[in-house]
Design goal:
The protein has 12 helices and 9 strands. With 316 residues, it is an alpha/beta fold. Strands 1, 2, 3, 4, 5, 6, 7, 8 and 9 form a 9-stranded mixed sheet that branches. α6 links the parallel β5 and β6. It starts with a helix and ends with a helix. It binds (2S)-2-hydroxybutanedioic acid (LMR). The site of (2S)-2-hydroxybutanedioic acid has 10 residues, from loops.
Length: 316
């Protein structure tokens, strides 16, 4: 009888497949594992989250469609990759949109974040939270200090019109390629530059195939954790509550953890590689910001003035 009850429990267990593209020792990789543990604990094993890192199930070009088909129930793509679903999300790709980590947190945990997650519902997707991976830096095979240095470079970018314009406006070319093809493409000189966080540059060893890194903090890299909406709507209310609690705890933990990991892995890169690192001075940064406002003007109509104005208030 006890055995039957146990068997019954296992048969009833709800499985959530969680697919992502990065390594396990990254902010997203660690958050996914932590979230899985918390969900099992809070639901007393009624829900099991199976985490598939390093695109072992789906590449970043495929995972949104796999979610909409309910082949996986949970994904956490970089927000840039969501701009195809809703143009409002282009807001988060605007260069220098977040002056610091506090503004980032205020926007994403406040009304701006709520509006962005809500915009996903038309696409059969429920957005549960934002996970942060801090700010992006630029790597290249020749030094980049001023926006004019972007001219002639070929950048690997994520799929986003804003990122395309951010580089093409200054005379660079861009190509959209999958995250896990980046190392190979740089190694084979198909592209000569890219932008990413320190933890992604470190975990994928991009410092081995790039000669220079500019610490610019010019763009935000974070994730939206998204669940298939019909799957979510079918879950019992108490399970939804437990999952959301596990999610909120993980997101809170990650705000600090991602900052700490990016700092610590910067030291690791310095210790083990020969990449030449240049940090933009405050006045150089101001030059970048001023020159790049041209991108804001171009994308305001598709992002929407209301959202831009709300973001502007946070920036002041
Ligand atoms: C990238 O494609 O550069 C990143 O979005 C990968 C990730 O998910 O952090």
């Amino acid at each position: 009888m006890v055995e039957d009850d146990e068997q019954q429990g296992i048969n009833d267990q709800i499985i959530i497949k969680f697919s992502h593209v990065v390594a396990e020792n990254t902010p997203k990789g660690l958050a996914a594992q932590r979230f899985a543990r918390l969900v099992e604990e809070y639901t007393e094993h009624r829900v099991k989250v199976e985490v598939y890192p390093n695109q072992s199930l789906y590449s970043d070009g495929e995972e949104i469609k796999a979610l909409q088909r309910n082949e996986v129930q949970l994904i956490a793509p970089a927000t840039s990759k969501i701009t195809e679903l809703s143009h409002k999300w282009q807001l988060l790709d605007l260069p220098f949109i977040f002056p610091n980590a506090a503004a980032l947190k205020e926007a994403l945990t406040g009304e701006v974040g709520v509006e962005l997650l809500k915009a996903l519902e038309e696409q059969q997707i429920k957005g549960l939270s934002f996970w942060s991976n801090n700010f992006k830096q630029i790597t290249s095979n020749s030094p980049i200090r001023h926006p004019s240095d972007l001219s002639g470079k070929s950048f690997r970018i994520m799929s986003s019109k804003v990122l395309e314009e951010q580089f093409e406006h200054f005379g660079a070319t861009t190509s959209i390629t999958g995250f896990n093809d980046t190392f190979k493409n740089l190694e084979k000189n198909r592209q000569d530059s890219q932008e990413n966080t320190i933890t992604n540059i470190n975990s994928k060893k991009l410092y081995q195939v790039q000669k220079y890194m500019t610490i610019s903090d010019h763009g935000y890299l974070g994730y939206a954790v998204m669940v298939n909406k019909p799957f979510w709507d079918d879950l019992p209310g108490d399970i939804q509550t437990d999952i959301q609690k596990a999610m909120d705890e993980t997101s809170n933990w990650l705000w600090l953890k991602s900052e700490e990991m990016n700092k610590q892995q910067m030291q690791e890169i310095k210790a083990k590689s020969n990449i030449k690192i240049y940090t933009l001075s405050e006045s150089e940064k101001r030059e970048w910001m001023e020159e790049m406002t041209v991108v804001y003007e171009q994308f305001e109509p598709s992002i929407g003035k209301d959202l831009m104005d709300r973001m502007q208030k946070i920036r002041q």
